[in-house]
Write a structure and sequence with these properties.
- By secondary structure, the chain is of the alpha+beta class.
- It is built from three helices and four strands, in the order ββαββαα.
- A hairpin with a 4-residue loop joins β3 and β4.
- α1 packs across α2.
- The chain is globular, with a radius of gyration of 16 Å.
């Protein structure tokens, strides 16, 4: 059996993609993103900046290692920490944080 190199970009690292909910007739879609913006740190920054209207789910995969998973809870934990440091929750993340960490509250820092 001949083994050929992967044609999938970024197969040597974890990739993160967002399922965004555009509401109503538009529904949900996996948002298009540049290959360079699919790492965890960039994803977290974009979420905090409000670059997604209403994230519903986040998946992570690594084709080089042959796995994929729902990363929504892991990303929620990281976002909660960033929101606590910032002292506010971006409006675009309120529903996402509530859905993926039911009952969890974001502890805002006292200034």
């Amino acid at each position: 059996m001949r083994i050929s190199p992967s044609i999938v970009p970024g197969s040597e690292r974890d990739i993160y993609l967002v399922l965004d909910d555009f509401g109503g007739r538009l529904g949900r879609a996996w948002t298009e993103t540049d290959e360079e913006h699919t790492d965890r740190e960039t994803l977290l920054r974009h979420l905090m900046e409000g670059q997604y209207s209403n994230p519903a789910r986040i998946v992570s995969f690594n084709t080089g290692e042959g796995w994929s998973r729902d990363a929504s809870e892991d990303i929620t934990e990281a976002l909660q920490q960033r929101c606590a440091v910032r002292g506010e929750v971006p409006p675009s993340l309120e529903a996402f944080l509530e859905i993926h960490r039911p009952g969890a509250t974001v502890q805002l820092s006292l200034l």
